[in-house]
Amino acid sequence: MQNDLILGKLEEIIEPSFVSNRMEDLYIYSQDPGASLPRKVDYVVMPETVEQVQEVVKLANKEKIPIIPMGGGLTLSGLVIPLKGGIVMDMKRMNKIIDINSQNRYALIEAGVTSGQLLAYLNKNHPDLQPPIPDAPPSVTIAGNALIHGSGYLSQKYGDHGAMINGLEVILPDGEVYKFGSCAISDYWFTRGPIPDLIGLFISSFGTMGIVTKLSIKLFPKPKMRDIVFGLCKDPNNLPELITKITHREVAEDILLGIQDKPDWMKGYTFIIVYITGESEEELNNKTKILKALYRKANSRYMKVPKHIEDVFLEKPQFAAKAADFRKGGGFEYVGAFIPLQLIPKLIQIGTDISLKHGIVPTLGARLIGQGHSAMFFISYSFNRADPKDMENARDALHETNKAVLEVGGIPWKAEIEGQQLILEKMDPNYKKLLKAIKNLIDPNGIMNPGNWEVK
Amino acid sequence: MGGEIIISANLEKDWKDIVHRCFRCGYCKFTADYSDFNCPSYKKYRFETFSTGGRMWTIYGLISGEIPWNDQVANVIYACSTCGNCMEHCKFDKFKDFLVDFIEAAREEAYNQGYCPNKQKALLERIENLEMYNPYGEKNSENDALKKEYDLPDEAEWVYFIGCTSNYRQKELRDATLRFLKKANINFTLIDEHCCCSPILRTGQTKNVKEFVNYNLMKIRETGASKVITSCAGCYRTMKSDWTKYDNSTDIEILHTIELIDGLIKEGKLNFKSELNQKVTYHDPCHLGRHMKIYEVPRNILKNIPGIDLVEMERNRGNSWCCGAGGGVKIGYPEWSLEISKERLEEAKNTNASLIASACPFCRTNLNDANREFEMNFEILDIIEIIDNLDYEIN
Ligand SMILES: Cc1cc2nc3c(=O)[nH]c(=O)nc-3n(C[C@H](O)[C@H](O)[C@H](O)COP(=O)(O)OP(=O)(O)OC[C@H]3O[C@@H](n4cnc5c(N)ncnc54)[C@H](O)[C@@H]3O)c2cc1C
Ligand code: SF4
Ligand code: SF4
Residue A251, CB half-sphere, CA atoms under 13 Å: how many? Predict the structure, then answer.
């Protein structure tokens, strides 16, 4: 079908003011803030209802037009920039908080609800509850984040955000509404089981399986008090054991590591940031004492940090985007690798070496996930968006890092297309075979964010 | 950590080298607590293109030649009330101070490329019209009649710069100011003023601004005044932060009327003899608030008026929702402009206030227009009018 006919059809489904093939909108949606090169977009739509999503999907399926669901578009790895053109579906007009079930601690929300919106809503209306949100800017969506195995300040204690999904409503390529989790049986969106768990199909599949319109996400009790116990560790080889010990004592809410060459005093050290929570000063003091002792035993030092710096770390979400201006250029992208704890020292070495090789100040770190079960280790490369060579340099560094991570046994998270192909190369063939079969079953015309996770 | 943000302050020379540093992260869309979108443009259009970040990237696309100018892309640049919420909430220090400047600089580029929309162009045509010199298309009031009526001298210590909105659309506000200055025994006069240039600066039509600034400053200097006072937030900001780019001499102090009033209250010279038993909420004009950081002065005045129960709207001070009139939006997008004001009035309704006070004739105009259009039944007054309605003494 001709472009203008498709546009006309889209405008019959969604109010014309939220359908566009205007050059300036396509320009913006053809890029993200990461290092990917721009790629062609044909249309951008912003549905407001499930029915509108269904109708657009039916149209796309009939006309075999790719469709790319987008939340905040902030993964940085180009996951919402089409690989084969098509319709970018910006979900952010579907932004209703449908229900907060404070007893069972979950939020039933539409897919376009931002992390900022849910955080503010709970702060105001349910101050004893807190949402699992990443340290990404508040404009990211809860759905976009949970659907990529996102992590945040609650992940050390409770696991990655994908694991916190209780239920999903998804429009599959046939245009029908499917429900997953307890909501497929009950009016309560309170749990994933006890039925065959298909929710995993939609996590880290990058919109290749269907469009999530609603999700139920777990909420957690908000402790009265929150503080940070900072530490400094000279020898990275001490870190895995130290972290295992901290998680064993169950004193930490969140554990972050920071390794960077700037400012100068940080060079050669790992900055350990352990968040503690409690109902009383006494509880916090006890946890602080335990941590100080653990630091000491691991040849690390407790570090007192000025209040104004501590306050920056206590912000929710933390301002993690600062790296975007390190090269005066509005851009950074990172390899976030899911790794077992013992790889931390290796990743520090890999990240430092590759950064220095590419002339980029090393900026690395990690967030612990699930009581020491794994860590998301990030190696961040800043670039100057106005300098194509600098962006290419960052892309090269990212690619090299993805390779190195896979070699040592880690797995790049929310990987851009080149990273996905590296992962697929290493993937067990039967896993790939099954993935391909499931994808073909669900999406026979290959309309859902095609190009991603493409098993060749 | 890991790097340093360095921004050259020489915007005119360097803005094209800085604008790409926007990360498009979107903090600027929100209120401080992220509970709502606070960029009127994003809230209406909802495509990322119309967020501040999208606008910055569009500007970069235009100046780098990645996208060409056309009317639609110019719309992205003009569909913004220059309210400054983005400057308040962007997380990149220093960079954020320039966001509205970037938008205005891009509008200048649009004008030069022939893409300034016709409605906004009308502002310049009227201001340049030798019979008018104001954006309202009215015959220039040389202010001689007012000078006579209020018995004002040719030479004085102060000049009251009325501003076009007060002189041609909100005369009650102008007259209230004149009465107050007289009562305060200020030695002041008026000049045959031409537009301060706020409307054309905000819409990128800057080519003759220097002439207007020179003219107005010459007229002010002719009176021998060392102080200029205005009740208009737009004139105040323009005189205080834009005129200096054209004439950086420092012989003239610029004040907003509320600063004079607040000073008199603090010195114990202004005493109210009657009460205003009403619940009042204050709307922060963007020109005065986010752009000039004046938040407490008007509140202090209102708190000192006997009987007033001052209540805050949920979004206030740096977090305020714009009235929707600024940045050429009222003339360029009249319906949207009223929608923006409507949202402010709805927020005011939640406070149960019956009177909305402000300190900007342009906000007053737009809030009043929306009040009428949507039958919201508020009383909307400038602080100077509220005072004018009271009995007071100045010693
Ligand atoms: C400064 C910065 C800090 C960050 N910190 C963190 C952090 O601490 N933790 C963390 O986890 N991440 C972090 N990130 C990465 C990323 O921004 C977040 O994970 C973010 O939450 C992704 O959400 P989004 O709404 O932007 O998703 P998008 O980028 O819009 O989408 C992500 C993927 O999900 C798909 N998708 C989105 N919505 C739907 C839907 N409704 N149905 C089906 N598929 C969908 C998209 O197609 C895409 O493949 C950070 C990013 C930045 C820029
Ligand atoms: S203006 Fe600031 S907050 Fe907004 S997108 Fe750009 S960098 Fe982010
Ligand atoms: S000035 Fe106001 S309307 Fe314009 S981009 Fe900034 S926040 Fe949005």
Answer: 23
Query: What distance in angstroms lies between residue A76's CA and the mean position of ligand 1's atoms?
Result: 8
- Pick from A117, A137, A384: CB nearest B25: A137
Residue A79 Cβ < 6 Å to ligand 1? yes
A267 to chain B: nearest residue by CA?
B2
Using a 6 Å cutoff on CB, does residue B90 contact ligand 2? Answer: yes
Ligand 3 atom nearest the C-alpha of B81 is: 3
Q: Whose CA is nearest to atom 5 of ligand 3?
A: B52
Domain ranges of chain B: 15-116, 139-262, 272-394
Is the pLDDT higher at A152 or at B17? A152
- The tally of CA atoms less than 13 A away on the side-chain side of residue B252 is 30
φ and ψ of A240, to 5 deg: -55, -45
Does residue A95 belong to the interface with chain B, where contact is any CB pair within 8 Å? Answer: no
Tell me if A257 sits within 8 A of A239, measured CB to CB.
yes
- Chain A residues inside the 8 Å CB shell of B58: 24, 27-28
Q: Is the domain B272-394 a CATH 3.40.50 member?
A: yes
Chain center to CA of B189: 23
- Residue range A123-149: average pLDDT? 98
Of B5, B25, B34, the CB nearest to A33: B25
In the beta sheet, which residues pair with residue A338?
A376, A411
Domains B139-262 and B272-394 share a fold: yes
Domains and CATH numbers, chain A: 2-90 (3.30.43.10), 97-221 (3.30.465.10), 225-415 (3.40.462.10)
pLDDT in tens, B52-97: 999 999 999 999 999 999 999 999 999 999 999 999 999 999 999 9
Structure tokens, B110: 């649009």
According to CATH, what is the number of the domain B139-262? Answer: 3.40.50.1860
Look at residues A141, A131, A179 and name the one whose alpha carbon lies nearest to residue A46: A141
Condensed to tens digits (0 to 9), the pLDDT of residues B238-247 reads: 999 999 999 8
CA atoms in the 13 A half-sphere facing the CB of B180: 29
Position of tokens 């107050």? Answer: B180
Q: What is the pLDDT of residues A107-134, one digit of tens each?
A: 999 999 999 999 999 999 999 999 999 9
Is the minimum CB–CB distance between A74 and chain B shorter than 8 Å?
yes
Probe site for chain A from B25, B78, B115 (most A CB atoms < 10 A)? B25
B49 vs A: CB within 8 A: yes
Q: Of the residues A140, A155, A180, A318, which should be mutated to test ligand 1's pocket, given the most ligand atoms within 8 Å of the CB?
A: A140
CA–CA gap between residue A249 and residue A251 (Å, rounded): 6
Interior/surface letters A385-411, b for 16+ CB within 10 angstroms, e for the rest = bbeeebbebbbebbbbbbbbbbeeebb
Convert the pLDDT of each residue in A70-110 to its tens digit. 999 999 999 999 999 999 999 999 999 999 999 999 999 99
Interface predicted TM-score (ipTM) of this complex, two decimals: 0.97
Identity of the residue in B25, B45, B67 whose CB atom sits nearest the CB atom of A27: B67
| DSSP per-residue letters across B54-97 | HHHHHHHHHHTTSS---HHHHHHHHS-----HHHHH-SSTTGGG
Tell me which H or E stretch contains B160: strand B158-160
